[in-house]
Design brief:
It contains 14 helices and 8 strands. With 284 residues, the protein is of the alpha/beta class. The chain is globular.
């Protein structure tokens, strides 16, 4: 009988397939409740996602909902997926002045997967009257900088400059995440210098608009691709320059064959690591 129970327990464990597990920076498994306690102590939270990962999208939604429930009136949301020159239209949508997603799409640039992956969070924020901030630099300006270099920025007029971080933005070329872009650039046959400039423009702009929106007592949840915030580089590094007093928590998303046996690199890429099976269905 004991042997039967032991085998049954072993079979049960072997069949356990969690959709995700949370790990701390020290590699210890975290409960959602423990992770939320840690997140709630931050001023700014970066949720570094994989853009086609449904667990990351769902957890962002759940974290926003729970933070708002625990601290009503304190939550602010920012998104890499929304560009700063579209803020007026986004705000109009949240107020009900733009009636539908179709109308919103006529006014601003939206990612192809926006309605499936990010619209639920926007709809929830609209219903709860939670402010949503477009933080990313306009794509046309980013592409121009990547193509022409700093000369492009010198020719931008005051109207364009209001949508990005103040020029000249700080150069953080020595950060490992920017140095790694050398390999990416060579792989695509483009200038590493200009690729870094474009990435730094995005990161500095997102940090600048977060710094402007955040006020003491508020909690700012920012959704972005993990490369923009892993190791507290990218946006997080720029935010420390603009608002050194803010307490930052970084979440990242990892895909792995088996979340139960995950071992993170040293140093860890984030304060909280969302580990998802690599076989998880992709959203696009």
């Amino acid at each position: 009988m004991r042997i039967f129970l032991f085998l049954a327990m072993g079979l049960s464990l072997a069949q356990d397939k969690p959709a995700y597990l949370l790990y701390s920076a020290k590699g210890k498994k975290l409960s959602y409740k423990a992770a939320l306690e840690q997140i709630q102590k931050a001023d700014v939270i970066f949720f570094g996602e994989l853009h086609n990962n449904p667990i990351a999208h769902w957890l962002t939604y759940e974290i926003a909902k729970d933070l708002h429930q625990r601290a009503p009136g304190k939550l602010l949301i920012g998104m890499e997926m929304l560009e700063t020159d579209g803020q007026e239209a986004v705000s109009a949508y949240l107020k009900g002045e733009v009636a539908s997603w179709e109308q919103l799409k006529d006014r601003i640039r939206l990612w192809p997967n926006f309605e499936t992956d990010y619209a639920p969070l926007i709809e929830w924020a609209k219903n709860q009257k939670v402010p949503v901030y477009a933080t990313n630099a306009p794509a046309l300006m980013v592409r121009q900088l990547a193509k022409e270099g700093l000369q492009a920025a010198e020719n931008w007029d005051s109207e364009k400059r209001k949508w990005i971080a103040p020029l000249p933005f700080p150069r953080l070329d020595t950060l490992p995440s920017y140095r790694r872009m050398e390999e990416m650039a060579h792989g695509h046959g483009i200038s590493a210098e200009r690729l870094r400039l474009a990435q730094m423009l995005r990161d500095a702009t997102m940090a600048h608009f977060i710094a402007q929106a955040w006020k003491p007592g508020k909690i700012f949840l920012h959704v972005n691709g993990r490369y923009h915030s892993d190791y507290k580089e990218g946006i997080a590094a720029y935010l420390r320059l603009y608002r050194p007093e803010v307490r930052i928590v970084v979440i990242t998303t990892e895909e792995t064959p088996n979340p139960t046996t995950y071992r993170h690199p040293d140093p860890a890429p984030a304060d909280i690591i969302v580990v998802v099976p690599e076989t998880m269905t992709k959203t696009h």
